[in-house]
């Protein structure tokens, strides 16, 4: 009886193995790592309550990912290491108010543009001497390391540039009188001014005209094509306009 039972159990085990071998393999999730410097409101920031990334860029990429059938894992990292990581394809993509430049195109590819911005000068409300880029000569300027504002400021004659890991630190030092001006993208600049209108102000016109794009690893042209296709679809559906209303005009309120 025991021998028969052993044979039956053995046959059941073999049969189970055959079924397992014949069964289709479980699908690998279509998941990508997307880098973002979550210290650049209203484009990307950390929700203090949930500790999750929120903002214009985060909402936009989530909409793109939904269209493209992509699962996303956001990675919060400083802007300068973000660019270095994208150059080495440590991340599949990055969205972080990244200006499309010829220099950056050498190390990564970019989606079609999704937002137009420019560099702005922010100073103390008590400062009446700095009104244009020419007035920044010889001044102490705060910037965010690795940004186009940082690159621009470092070309100004005689200027002392203090580059910070995050733009909010540059604005904090402006409020504390440690720098005379901050050069940064106009939308975040206006956001910081809105919260401190009695202390700082934006002066002059925009110093540049720039397009933001989604950075993609150069080794993954298929992902770039998916992102561009989905981006075009969400644009056509008015998602960009909705995000402008929510995050830019309303500053996330």
Overall description:
By secondary structure, this protein is an alpha/beta fold. It has 2 domains: about 30-115 and about 210-250, 3-Layer(aba) Sandwich (D-Maltodextrin-Binding Protein, domain 2), CATH 3.40.190.10; about 120-205, 3-Layer(aba) Sandwich (D-Maltodextrin-Binding Protein, domain 2). Helices cover about 40% and strands about 20% of the residues. It has 9 helices and 14 strands. It has helices spanning about 1-20, 55-70, 80-85, 100-105, 150-155, 165-175, 185-195, 220-235, 240-250, and strands at about 30-35, 45, 55, 70-75, 95, 110, 115, 120-125, 140-145, 160-165, 180-185, 200-205, 210, 215. The protein has a 5-stranded mixed beta sheet with strand order 4-1-5-14-6. A 5-stranded mixed beta sheet has the order 10-9-11-8-12.
Write a concise keyword list for the protein shown above.
single chain, 21% strand, disordered N terminus, D-Maltodextrin-Binding Protein, domain 2, globular, five-stranded mixed beta sheet, alpha/beta, 2 domains, 9 helices, 253 residues
Summarize the structure.
With 253 residues, this protein is α/β, with parallel strands linked by helices. It contains nine helices and 14 strands. The chain has a five-stranded mixed sheet with strand order 4-1-5-14-6.
Give the spatial strand order of the biggest sheet: 4-1-5-14-6
Q: From the alpha-carbon coordinates, what is the Rg to the nearest angstrom? A: 25 Å
How many β strands by DSSP?
14
Protein structure class: alpha/beta
CATH superfamily of the largest domain: Periplasmic binding protein-like II
CATH class of the largest domain: Alpha Beta
Q: How many strands, which pairing sense, and closed or not: the largest β-sheet?
A: 5 strands, mixed
The stretches of 5 or more residues where confidence is low (pLDDT under 50) are: 1-28
Mean pLDDT: 89
As for the number of domains, it is: 2
Helix content: 25-40%
CATH architecture of the largest domain: 3-Layer(aba) Sandwich
Choose one word for the global shape: globular
Give the topology string: H per helix, E per strand.
HEEEHEHEHEEEEHEHEHEEEHH
Number of DSSP helices? 9
Tell me the distance between the termini: 76 Å
Strand content: 15-25%
The CATH topology of the largest domain turns out to be D-Maltodextrin-Binding Protein, domain 2
